[in-house]
Amino acid sequence: MTRIICTISVHLWLSFTVFAQAPEIFKVDPPSWWTRSSVNPVRLLIRGRNFQRARVQVEGAGLRLTSTPKINGRGTYIFVDLFIAPNAQSGYRVISVTTPRGSARAPFQVLGPLNRAGRFQGFSPADVMYLIMIDRFADGDQLNNDPTQSRGIYDRRNKFYYHGGDLQGVINHLPYLTELGVTAIWLTPWYDNYDRLNEIELKEDKPSTGFHGYNPQDFYVVEEHFGTHEKLRELVETAHRSGIKIIQDQVMNHTGPYHPWVDDPPTPTWFNGTKSKHLKNVFQTWALHDPRAVESLKRETMEGWFLDFLPDLNQHDPEVSRYLIQNTLWWIGTTGLDGIRMDTWQYVPNSFWRDWNSALKREFPNFRVVGEVKDGDVVHTSFFQGGKVRFDGVDSGLDSLLDFPLFYPIRHAFAEGKPVDEIPKTLAKDYLYNNPEILVTLLGGHDDGRFMSEKGATIDGLKLANALVLTTRGVPQLYYGDELGMQGEDEPTTRADFPGGFPGDKRNAFTSAGRTKHEQELFEYIKRLITLRREHEVLRTGELVNLYVSEQQYAYARKGRSGAVVIVINNDNDAASIEFDVSRVALRGVLKDQLGVSRPVQINNGKMRVSLPKRSAAIFAG
Ligand SMILES: [Ca+2]
Ligand SMILES: [Ca+2]
Ligand SMILES: [Ca+2]
């Protein structure tokens, strides 16, 4: 009997201490918003503890709460709607949470909307995009290299650790990018990632770090190794003044394994599954666009946890959907950036993307998004492009895709020396896309080995690959360091440091004096191609017309109202002489090769005869 009383009193005492504690606020998402936004009210997610039976108030003019606070059972989250009057003055306000045991306060910032001129620009085939892995490009601020203090995640000798690259490093080297001719930078994710060694994701059997940025632990904070939100704004502003757009890499499919939500989700259905019980992703991506899909295969692919440890967000939960949509708008609206590259696009339901895209375009009509659907089959990738309702009854609204179906033939032909006709054979399937002209074409990226590390790759082959990417249809994307022919055969080594970006580097390849002869030659070649693309409108917007295809020769034109330009590629290891009909593109007179490889060519009876040395390209303009 005594024992029972004892147990009851301990239980009562425990309950008392839980309720006896005052509320605490850890975080308010979003921490700020701007007036006259298309999203109003804004849904706040307040994270903290001891929120049971809380009242929420906002102090300060121009703001009011328009919903009853929704508090989870554990008292760790509050959802509440905040209305911002159109004439609310910029500045800080206070959100307070009050229970019978006390009160907690957190700041909320009201912003004025950013001037739209020169911001939120989107991207188009007029751009040349350049992918930068922030940690590996340039270290512009050594004070942020070890912000978490001796937690041992900064070490330039370890390919899975932070190397010190940051946003200031990108700002410092904007002149280099301008010299090359780049007009848009895609930066790998800058979300805050875990600040210690990641013991869950082992690389080569050892703990790794989130230097790549794809494991967010906070969707509203800039990674402290890279800089601050103010530094990001400075980067966007400085880049815009240099005529360079900024493309953000976003992740909406999953969080990092250490996100606080994983152990304490804001709603019971926040994730697909839980840390202890979830599906594993089986990557049967074909099932995602199969009208007769085996339901379990589709679910395991759509809702399974990536690599078994990346918590899969459930976008069917309206709170998750709302959170993610607001998060996307917040990064754009508070910085002025121009486009998004969306990670793991296909693993997120199309119905969510439809809502996400329409919210995005409502606020930023010129904005553009490119999705990552990593697959070599046009039948597969084209299903995900928006602009038309697919068999599932949904138009995802997605503008563009990374053109992986073209990436692989480019590698095969120009690195390995395999037949070049695989390229026009792939382009022949363009009719499956709603809009092939906006696809982002590439010969390299951060998830694949470098071009120059493919078996058989040469500088001449890399030049041909660049000549194709910078003259065929689409928006060309370059990968940092490929303009120097950098090496790296797999995912970790493909992300090597740019020479000259880091303290103590032996040479500085950002300057011509610091480049080797081959690097300089390649750099100048790519720069020349970009200049031609800028000078000849047809290379950006003209219709792509095939003129000649054989196993190792490929000739095509870009044709527009202002005329036509003819590109001829000889991928063979021998010189080649070919003749083809150009009457379709209405060329006359003498055409000069803008790359200085071929002699001028006289058009005779609508025919063009071109002789090219082995593995070379020519670009003919009148
Ligand atoms: Ca740094
Ligand atoms: Ca961090
Ligand atoms: Ca998913």
The low-confidence parts are 1-19
The profile of the biggest β sheet is: 8 strands, parallel
Number of helices: 14
Bound molecules: calcium ion
Give an overview of the whole structure.
The protein has 622 residues and is α/β, with parallel strands linked by helices. The protein contains 14 helices and 29 strands. The strands form seven sheets. The chain has an eight-stranded parallel beta sheet with strand order 19-18-17-16-11-10-21-20. Helix 7 (318-335) runs parallel beside helix 8 (350-363) and helix 12 (459-469) packs parallel to helix 13. The radius of gyration is 27 Å and the shape is elongated. The model is unreliable at 1-19 (pLDDT under 50). The protein binds calcium ion (CA) (3 copies). Residues 192-193, 195, 223-224 line the site of one calcium ion.
What is the element layout, followed by pairings?
Blueprint: H1 2-20, E1 24-29, E2 32-34, E3 42-49, E4 55-59, E5 63-65, E6 70-71, E7 77-84, E8 91-99, E9 102-111, E10 129-132, H2 134-137, H3 167-172, H4 174-180, E11 184-187, E12 191-193, E13 198-203, E14 206-208, E15 216-222, H5 229-241, E16 245-250, H6 295-303, H7 318-335, E17 339-342, H8 350-363, E18 368-371, H9 378-382, E19 400-401, H10 404-415, H11 422-427, E20 440-442, H12 459-469, E21 475-479, H13 517-535, H14 537-541, E22 543-549, E23 553-560, E24 563-570, E25 576-581, E26 590-593, E27 601-602, E28 607-612, E29 616-621
Parallel strand pairs: 2-9, 10-11, 10-21, 11-16, 16-17, 17-18, 18-19, 20-21
Antiparallel strand pairs: 1-3, 3-7, 4-8, 5-7, 6-7, 8-9, 12-15, 13-14, 22-23, 23-24, 24-29, 25-28, 26-27, 26-29
Helix pairs in contact: 7-8, 10-12, 12-13
The chain binds calcium ion (CA) (3 copies).
